[in-house]
From TrEMBL:
<keyword id="KW-0274">FAD</keyword>
<dbReference type="InterPro" id="IPR002938">
    <property type="entry name" value="FAD-bd"/>
</dbReference>
<dbReference type="GO" id="GO:0071949">
    <property type="term" value="F:FAD binding"/>
</dbReference>
<dbReference type="Pfam" id="PF07976">
    <property type="entry name" value="Phe_hydrox_dim"/>
</dbReference>
<keyword id="KW-0285">Flavoprotein</keyword>
<feature type="domain" description="Phenol hydroxylase-like C-terminal dimerisation">
    <location>
        <begin position="204"/>
        <end position="387"/>
    </location>
</feature>
<dbReference type="InterPro" id="IPR038220">
    <property type="entry name" value="PHOX_C_sf"/>
</dbReference>
<protein>
    <recommendedName>
        <fullName>Phenol 2-monooxygenase</fullName>
    </recommendedName>
</protein>
<dbReference type="InterPro" id="IPR012941">
    <property type="entry name" value="Phe_hydrox_C_dim_dom"/>
</dbReference>
<dbReference type="Pfam" id="PF01494">
    <property type="entry name" value="FAD_binding_3"/>
</dbReference>
<feature type="domain" description="FAD-binding">
    <location>
        <begin position="14"/>
        <end position="165"/>
    </location>
</feature>
<keyword id="KW-0560">Oxidoreductase</keyword>
<comment type="similarity">
    <text>Belongs to the PheA/TfdB FAD monooxygenase family.</text>
</comment>
<dbReference type="InterPro" id="IPR050641">
    <property type="entry name" value="RIFMO-like"/>
</dbReference>
<dbReference type="GO" id="GO:0016709">
    <property type="term" value="F:oxidoreductase activity, acting on paired donors, with incorporation or reduction of molecular oxygen, NAD(P)H as one donor, and incorporation of one atom of oxygen"/>
</dbReference>
<dbReference type="InterPro" id="IPR036249">
    <property type="entry name" value="Thioredoxin-like_sf"/>
</dbReference>
<dbReference type="InterPro" id="IPR036188">
    <property type="entry name" value="FAD/NAD-bd_sf"/>
</dbReference>
Length: 388
């Protein structure tokens, strides 16, 4: 239930969990507008799956249970915004698709307790996983029979892992004896810490498939970028305007692939020649192999049509360069291959794809922070290429 609480419980404005030996468990999540969401475990009267017992639940019953669990602290409310009662069912479907044409996603194919805040997040990740694959298949850029089955393969495993996690989490929350509660408090804390790995998708690790190739030698070049896992974001500085960006903000989810060239210190001639040679190959050989795609549909509400404009066509592969040279030592128009800053007849040179790890503090001081390379486990001298 979402309430405006009146309580002497000191941690009411932080996410907290109370497990009581007599009354079950209570989780509190502070919300906007002074609201707090209470997840109250009801241990009495709901032992059967009957709808009748569920319909017996009232807000007063909920708050009385919360009071029992929280005692000797007190809790009451001035306002109830919303409440509901549900029974936890931990289930997942055997198949997420039927013949590669009908797909199940979200709660329709996996359910679990809402306490870990996973359901919506994992459901959206299901449809994201499916969406880009269907998008590229419809555009004729990938073979549906090769790509579409990876949806079932990848997401079914995530659902199974999530349900295993949730079972254990629910079990820990349902402990009654003082001994069990105290013995499992460290474990419960670890579960709390682990939960965001699911909600953010960072913890998901897709197995080898046509999309994920695990090559130990190549992996060593970027030790902390794990093939099959989400590419984590780091802060980088735009080479041209000095603005600091989260890399993810430059990588919208529009169905394109990204090649991130971590080129090291391109102020050194040898390094710059290597990075430029790679740029030439990417620009002249790799990118032209694939037809460009439309990613910005124009919606005409009057005619109720959606169409793509040909001048908005863009390569399906987007190239980024993240180097470590000080900004003032590199003139990108002179020094860097144009694949990294392509020319557009109407828009001029591109200034949004070259980043540096050195950060401008004032006009005269440049502080070099190699943390991006450290965070990804990339050797600055050797560099690495990451496909995301
Ligand atoms: C109390 C509670 C708290 C939660 N808290 C969190 C949280 O903090 N974080 C989190 O990530 N998740 C949370 N969840 C889980 C989250 O709400 C669900 O996992 C998520 O909504 C699932 O999304 P979905 O699109 O798969 O299904 P739904 O959100 O259920 O959407 C399905 C839609 O389909 C419609 N529909 C059904 N049948 C038909 C039909 N025949 N024709 C047309 N439409 C139909 C339904 O009306 C509904 O709108 C919570 C759940 C509960 C119950």
């Amino acid at each position: 239930m979402d309430i405006i609480p009146v309580t002497d419980f000191p941690d009411i404005r932080v996410r907290s969990m109370v497990r009581s030996t007599s009354g079950g468990s209570l989780m509190m999540i502070p919300r906007e507008n002074k609201l707090v969401r209470l997840y109250i475990q009801l241990t009495d009267g709901l032992s059967t799956n009957s709808r009748l017992t569920r319909s017996m639940v009232t807000p007063m019953m909920l708050i009385e249970t919360a009071k029992r669990i929280l005692s000797p602290y007190t809790i009451d409310f001035t306002y109830i915004h919303w409440w509901s009662a549900y029974q936890i069912g931990q289930r997942s479907g055997d198949h997420f698709d039927k013949q590669g044409r009908i797909f199940l996603a979200g709660d329709a194919v996996h359910t679990h307790s809402p306490k870990a805040g996973q359901g919506m997040n994992v459901s959206m990740q299901d449809t994201y996983n499916l969406g880009w694959k269907i998008g590229l298949a419809c555009k004729g850029l990938v073979r549906p029979k090769a790509i579409i089955p990876t949806y079932d393969m990848e997401r079914k495993l995530v659902a199974k892992e999530l349900i295993a996690f949730d079972r254990k989490f629910s079990e820990l929350l349902s402990m009654h004896s003082a001994k069990d509660i105290s013995e499992t408090s460290v474990e419960l804390k670890q579960f709390f810490k682990k939960a965001p790995l699911f909600t953010t998708g960072i913890g998901v690790n897709y197995a080898s498939s046509i999309l994920t190739v695990v090559d130990d030698e190549a992996h060593g070049l970027a030790k902390y970028v794990v093939p099959g896992k989400r590419f984590a974001s780091c802060q980088v500085t735009n080479h041209s305007d000095g603005r600091v960006w989260e890399l993810h903000h430059r990588m919208p989810s529009d169905g394109r692939f990204r090649i991130m060239v971590f080129g090291g210190n391109i102020a050194h001639d040898e390094q710059r020649f290597a990075v430029n040679a790679l740029g030439q190959w990417l620009g002249k050989t790799l990118i032209p192999r694939y037809p460009p795609i439309n990613i910005c549909p124009i919606v005409d509400r009057r005619l109720q049509t959606v169409r793509f404009q040909s001048e908005l066509m863009t390569p399906i592969i987007e190239i980024f360069l993240v180097h470590t040279a000080p900004r003032d030592q590199i003139d990108i128009l002179q020094d860097v291959d144009s694949t990294y800053h392509p020319w557009h007849p109407k828009l001029g040179w591109d200034y949004d794809h070259i980043f540096t790890t050195s950060r401008v503090i004032t006009e005269d001081t440049i502080q070099s922070t190699q943390s991006v390379y450290e965070d990804y486990g990339i050797d600055e001298e050797r560099g690495a290429v990451v496909i995301a």
